[in-house]
Amino acid sequence: MCTFALIMDNFRTIIPIKKEFHLSHADDIVSMGSCFADRIGNLLKQSGFYVEQNPFGVLYNPMSVVKALELLWYDIPFKEDDLFEYQGLYSSFMHHTSFSGSDKAAVLQRIRSVNHRASEALHDATCLMITFGTSWVYALAETGKIVANCHKLPDYHFVRRRLEVDEIVDYYTSFFETVFQEKPDLKVLMTVSPIRHFKDGAHENTLSKAVLHLAIDELGLRFPQIVYFPAYELLCDDLRDYRFYDEDMLHPNAVAVKYIWDAFSQFAFDKGTKDLILQLQNIHKAMQHRPLHPDDEAYVRFAQKNLAAIAVLQAQHPEIDLSQEQDFFKRILE
User: Fold this and answer.
1) Ramachandran region of residue 219, left (φ > 0), alpha (ψ -120 to 50) or beta?
2) In this predicted model, what pLDDT tens digit does every residue of 242-251 receive, in sequence order?
3) pTM higher than 0.85
4) In CATH, which of 3.40.50.1110, 3.40.50.10260, 3.40.50.2300, 3.20.20.60 is domain 23-269?
């Protein structure tokens, strides 16, 4: 588990990050969980990492995450009966609304395709990242089955309750015991989303987050492969000022995300990986450059220079897929 001490200095609570975890571009990552997992996953992708990210869409509660992981681990195909129709849209209670659609066959085919790809990614993964958002869940009133998304169905279809610590721990223990038998060296990074769910109520949100922290702590004691990263503490304790939040005063703004990303870099990357990320970021910045005169000879040389840099990086790091970056600058020359 990740241990960290608190240092009071300059009217800030500084949380030193103890380095117990290591990622390199040779790692294949699967990231599951809340919208905070999406933001970190996107930053990893932009830094040249391979990330299979939220194949079910954003998932907030621990039970929906582990049930999704089980479906991927055993490559269980979705059936027509797993979909339901409401107001002309076919949806899955396991998936985000982004998977919904008016064509039942198309929805089912997309879910099956994404799940099969993600199943292969999970079995190939060297790192699994899981972010819990809330321990409050909605279960179908008829069956008691926990849903990942209510898809705006009327409230009477669901029963709302808070998960217990032991409930989460027992389910994940069963899953991890199976996975670690096949993949004993799989690295598992767990975090709690720092985004507060104030629609639950302030006190209820505190209780909800406490359940998540206690569950992760117990899992870390049971499995040495599991490491905790203090994203929650970095935003809620270190950056406890509204200037680090978006307009809703709940989600971290770009400054806060960068701060947490920098802390994550210190936590997970060695110097060589950081240097490589910097080179990749420079290439992506170059891709965002918009010249005043696209047909100018200087812009052609600019594209040639970046293609040469990409070629060198690709030769040095064949584990990184730079085909999209190459295609971007080739199109300029064409």
Assistant:
1) alpha
2) 788 888 887 8
3) yes
4) 3.40.50.1110
